[in-house]
Amino acid sequence: MDAVLARAARLGPLEVAVGALAGNLALFVVALLAGGWLVRRFGDRRLTPAPAPPDRRERLLTVVAVLLNSALGLAGWLLWQAGWIRLTADTGPRALADLLLFSLVMDALMYGGHWLAHRRRLYRLAHELHHAYPDPRPATLFVLHPLEVLGFGGAWIAVLCFWPGMSAAALAGYIGVNLVFGLLGHLGVEPFPVRVRRLAVFRWVALPMFHVGHHRDPSVNLGFYTTVWDRLFGTVDPRYDARRLAADPGRYDP
């Protein structure tokens, strides 16, 4: 990891910008391919009606999201070069601790931001656009108003600026965690069998159906990685646990 950080420090802004774009395109392609396979594999566990073919606005928003995420990656690198963000080469237990703690901090911040995004004026300004697609598909993960893309990216960059020293391995791991949870929450199907869904950990870790439920009813299930904040503040769907524990979770009402 020391060699990776040393190499990154020697890059120029143009190289970083190209690399960030290539990386974000790769994440987008992986999400589409993996998501498409999961939807086909578990199509018999569909939670929502099959979505209509993507329209022009969806395609445009995904392009804008990839470009903005790439720009945020460049911004993060510049802040690291300027000393505002501190990265370490730690691996092992330290990296795992950073990953878990950073994910929990971001989960809390995203819950708060998501709650604010559903206040009437802010909702109409930006977040309403995402909810124009109640029957999600893997690409819906990227169908966001540009302000939301910048808000989420800006939030994790801001947290990094206050972190005493984030493991670079943990940061890479967090990008993967965010992609996995975002993708699973926008499949429109529930890939986990009932024996997995009934495990105690999934009372607190959000299943794919958790975020699908939010798409069907925007007033509930505001969390992303966990159900902790929804349970604490009373925004969890009262039917969520029964659906999670059921042998057949069934479809959400249209």
Automatic annotation (TrEMBL):
<dbReference type="InterPro" id="IPR050307">
    <property type="entry name" value="Sterol_Desaturase_Related"/>
</dbReference>
<keyword id="KW-0472">Membrane</keyword>
<feature type="transmembrane region" description="Helical">
    <location>
        <begin position="171"/>
        <end position="189"/>
    </location>
</feature>
<dbReference type="Pfam" id="PF04116">
    <property type="entry name" value="FA_hydroxylase"/>
</dbReference>
<keyword id="KW-0812">Transmembrane</keyword>
<feature type="transmembrane region" description="Helical">
    <location>
        <begin position="139"/>
        <end position="165"/>
    </location>
</feature>
<protein>
    <submittedName>
        <fullName>Sterol desaturase family protein</fullName>
    </submittedName>
</protein>
<feature type="transmembrane region" description="Helical">
    <location>
        <begin position="100"/>
        <end position="118"/>
    </location>
</feature>
<dbReference type="InterPro" id="IPR006694">
    <property type="entry name" value="Fatty_acid_hydroxylase"/>
</dbReference>
<feature type="domain" description="Fatty acid hydroxylase">
    <location>
        <begin position="100"/>
        <end position="235"/>
    </location>
</feature>
<feature type="transmembrane region" description="Helical">
    <location>
        <begin position="16"/>
        <end position="39"/>
    </location>
</feature>
<keyword id="KW-1133">Transmembrane helix</keyword>
<feature type="transmembrane region" description="Helical">
    <location>
        <begin position="60"/>
        <end position="80"/>
    </location>
</feature>
